[in-house]
Write a structure and sequence with these properties.
The chain is α+β, with helices and mostly antiparallel strands. Helices cover 50% and strands 12% of the residues.
């Protein structure tokens, strides 16, 4: 009886072509109401069962979204790094979009006058198409972004079964008090063969508090011991490089391993470099190296551009590029190219000065990569990340790392220690001192600090900073090197 009365009402509204045209605004208004709250059109036309079902479904979806945004908000980031969850979410968004569009179309079908002139029909169809577009595009964009994000996530982070790094989700850090992640900046410029890791920093993070110590090694460190096995068999007295163009610096180890698979047997291409460098740095510092993240320095510029730039204080003029450009002092928003040169330029400075700038740049990017920035440049960031990042962190560890990163951002202390002159001289490093200082920096935690590798070398038997003896030429005492980690907040402008 409800459908019969609805039909008679529509016939009265459409009695004559002019009457149908007059009934169109009411039909469109109720269709819009149904697009905003499912079931309105069905209730108006007497379809109470269908209207009730649609309204119940609408309330359930709205309640789920509200609960996710409020009650379970803290769990969203945890879920956002699980590819299976993202796949289901993407499929659910597609289904939601299809259902929503069908609700709009069906609502108009049961509301429109039966007799309308062609012009009114065209106008009604156009208005409904606009409504479908308005509800469909945001949902489609959300589904697309979820798919792009999942694709980037699975491209960068492999599962534990794929990379041989199984993770117990109940105890993701295996009972360790600290997790140690090697942060590498690779420079694969067109005038270079392969990858040179010009930035090497071990981030040691307390798994309970998020307190972090950044231990940085210079790219030009020499005479360092190689890890036991084929690498040490080839270089029993420390790494000496491969020919006159490669004199044996720490930043050459990655590419040497890629070019000489016999020093890392059984490890596939593109993984040999990270494995040998992790083992080498573990021996230098006397610390475990759990995972690595490699950032291509030129792709890094794309990430900064996708973020809309990075705000930082430049304390002195920094020449960059081949055209004589200069980053002037002051608070500046650097684009990708400028940020890259801020972290790479050695003109009128040194490797050690730029190492300090790199830490401040990392800190600024971490602080400014807020959710709004990520959402507004999502596709660009995802594409840049796929081109730029490589890691052996397994997907299963990501939820735990997300929780840990929240602790780091929510007030955890971040300190930095650089093994550079005058504390450590890269041409004649004191490896015993390096290990001692690294151990002290992470509070000598037994879960994070291992015994020095057997047969490890030291540039000298001294356990004190290798600074020149006696006063300086002007009679004053030379400054004592800082042998303890310092806060990035205090040292970065």
């Amino acid at each position: 009886m409800g459908r019969s009365s609805s039909r008679h009402a529509r016939e009265r509204d459409g009695d004559g072509s002019s009457g149908g045209a007059r009934g169109l605004p009411r039909a469109l208004a109720l269709t819009l109401a149904s697009a905003l709250v499912w079931g309105v059109a069905h209730f108006v036309t007497g379809r109470r069962i269908a209207g009730s079902l649609l309204l119940a479904l609408y309330v359930a979806v709205a309640a789920a979204v509200a609960a996710a945004a409020t009650v379970y908000r803290s769990d969203l980031l945890h879920l956002a790094v699980q590819p299976d969850v993202l796949q289901r979410l993407s499929a659910g968004l597609v289904a939601l979009g299809v259902v929503w569009v069908l609700v709009v179309i069906r609502s108009y079908q049961i509301l429109r006058p039966l007799r309308m002139p062609i012009s009114a029909r065209a106008l009604g169809a156009a208005a409904v198409a606009v409504m479908c577009f308005a509800v469909g595009v945001p949902v489609a964009w959300s589904a697309h972004s979820t798919y792009v994000y999942r694709d980037a996530l699975t491209s960068i982070f492999r599962t534990g079964s794929e990379n041989g790094r199984q993770v117990d989700t109940e105890d993701p850090f295996n009972g360790q008090a600290r997790v140690n992640i090697l942060l590498l900046g690779g420079d694969s410029a067109a005038d270079r063969t392969g990858v040179r890791t010009d930035s090497m920093t071990l981030a040691s993070v307390d798994t309970e508090t998020g307190d972090t110590v950044l231990l940085s090694l210079p790219r030009n460190l020499e005479h360092f011991p190689m890890p036991p096995g084929p690498a040490r068999d080839r270089f029993p007295y420390g790494f000496t490089g491969d020919g006159p163009l490669n004199p044996g610096l720490l930043n050459e180890v990655y590419e040497y391993a890629e070019q000489h698979p016999d020093v890392v047997p059984g490890v596939p291409k593109n993984h040999r470099g990270p494995e040998l460098l992790k083992a080498t740095i573990a021996g230098i510092l006397g610390l475990r190296v759990d995972y690595y993240i490699l950032v291509d320095m030129f792709g890094f510029a794309d990430i900064v551009d996708a973020m809309g730039g990075v705000k930082i204080k430049v304390t002195e003029p920094i020449p960059y590029g081949l055209q004589g450009a200069v980053l002037q002092p002051g608070y500046r928003t650097l684009d990708g190219k400028e940020a890259l040169w801020y972290g790479r330029s050695r003109t009128n400075s040194s490797d050690y000065v730029r190492m300090g700038r790199q830490k401040c740049l990392m800190r600024a990017i971490a602080e400014q990569a807020d959710p709004q920035t990520v959402l507004t440049s999502f596709d660009k960031l995802a594409a840049a990340a796929k081109r730029t990042l490589a890691t052996d962190i397994p997907q299963e560890l990501l939820p735990a790392l997300v929780k840990l990163s929240n602790k780091v951002k929510d007030g955890a202390e971040i300190r930095s220690l650089q093994f550079v002159p005058p504390l450590i001289y890269s041409g004649n490093p004191d490896f015993k001192l390096i290990r001692k200082l690294a151990s002290d920096a992470v509070n000598s935690d037994p879960h994070a600090v291992s015994a020095p590798p057997s047969g490890g070398q030291s540039g000298s038997p001294s356990a004190s900073p290798s600074t020149p003896d006696g006063p300086s030429p002007d009679g004053s005492e030379p400054p004592k090197p800082d042998s303890k980690p310092v806060s990035l907040e205090a040292t970065c402008p």
